């Protein structure tokens, strides 16, 4: 009797590889740029370990590392959002490609200046430094405009789940504000204005620290000032509001099976609205604190009072969101979005 023929063995797909292929399907240029960010992060970590040069008080490879993480996370998020488009897909693809190209150029400029041991931002010391910084500024403006256009496309996009739809809309708006806050750093300080009025040459125009020179004492890893206001704080908080809102919406969707109350689409929408409003207020609070020359780790009584009020209002809002309402329906059929393709 013949032995039974073995059944064909299906090759198993590595989960990491499957995830990477899915991300590539969302939007290839953005995903590839995110992968390059991961490679740059590895290079920057090696640089932090081996290169002891310092720029404005920070290790010369700290900024490339931070930019790699921030841009990588943002690109993956934006790629996923573009995969949700059912209309204007080709327009969205090209806008995403513009963002990917500009942010890749931004990374090249930051790394170029790190290799030279020079500041990448606010640097007008030489014609080359000035050209690099002005090119970066132009790329950032292009990214902002492209993100605004993507935001408009997503604004008219309707998903099966209302809470996810509004989380994306609110997150895009917060992210645009966060990007725009970088403009506050480009204004010359009082000392720089004095130098230029007296006919001198200001090698640095602009600063992220308020009430102290850039390069003073700062927090580990992020470098935010511990002695004065730092506009990088609200810039960071606002820029990554998109990820916060998207993760919130996806978490609420994922927890529906475990927590029956979350099966209500209306309840999830209220939670998104409360968190979105509170997060927007947090961006405003950190901006106000920085402009007053106050370190994020040294709030005065007034800042503490405002922060405490914001926390209390947020808790009250969440209590309101979770209150049981008569006739509120559960919508268990809504699916988590994100299976579309990002190709044009």
UniProtKB/TrEMBL annotation:
Keyword field: Membrane, Transmembrane, Transmembrane helix
Residues passing through the membrane, by range: 30-50, 65-85, 92-115, 135-156, 168-186, 236-255, 267-290, 302-322
Protein name: Uncharacterized protein
Species of origin: Nocardiopsis alborubida
């Amino acid at each position: 009797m013949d032995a039974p023929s073995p059944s064909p063995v299906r090759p198993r797909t590595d989960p990491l590889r499957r995830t990477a292929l899915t991300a590539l399907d969302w939007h290839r240029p953005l995903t590839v740029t995110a992968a390059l960010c991961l490679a740059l992060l590895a290079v920057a970590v090696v640089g932090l370990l081996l290169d002891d040069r310092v720029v404005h008080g920070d290790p010369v490879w700290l900024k490339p590392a931070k930019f790699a993480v921030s841009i990588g996370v943002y690109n993956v998020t934006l790629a996923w959002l573009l995969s949700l488009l059912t209309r204007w897909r080709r327009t969205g693809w090209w806008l995403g490609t513009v963002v990917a190209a500009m942010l890749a150029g931004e990374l090249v400029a930051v790394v170029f200046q790190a290799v030279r041991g020079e500041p990448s931002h606010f640097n007008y010391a030489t014609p080359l430094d000035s050209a690099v910084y002005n090119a970066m500024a132009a790329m950032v403006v292009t990214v902002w405009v492209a993100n605004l256009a993507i935001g408009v496309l997503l604004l008219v996009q309707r998903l099966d789940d209302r809470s996810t739809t509004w989380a994306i809309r609110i997150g895009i708006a917060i992210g645009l504000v966060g990007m725009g806050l970088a403009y506050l750093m480009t204004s010359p300080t009082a000392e720089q204005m004095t130098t230029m009025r007296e006919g001198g040459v200001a090698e640095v125009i602009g600063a992220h620290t308020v009430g102290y020179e850039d390069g003073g004492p700062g927090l580990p890893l992020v470098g935010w000032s511990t002695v004065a206001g730092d506009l990088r704080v609200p810039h960071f908080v606002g820029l990554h509001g998109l990820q916060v809102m998207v993760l919130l919406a996806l978490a609420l969707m994922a927890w529906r099976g475990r927590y029956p109350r979350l099966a209500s689409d209306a309840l999830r929408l209220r939670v998104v609205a409360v968190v979105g409003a509170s997060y927007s207020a947090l961006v405003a609070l950190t901006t106000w604190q920085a402009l007053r020359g106050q370190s994020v780790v040294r709030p005065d009584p007034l800042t503490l009072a405002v922060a405490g009020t914001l926390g209390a209002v947020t808790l009250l809002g969440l209590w309101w969101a979770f209150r049981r309402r008569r006739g509120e329906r559960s919508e268990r059929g809504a699916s988590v979005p994100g299976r579309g393709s990002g190709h044009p």
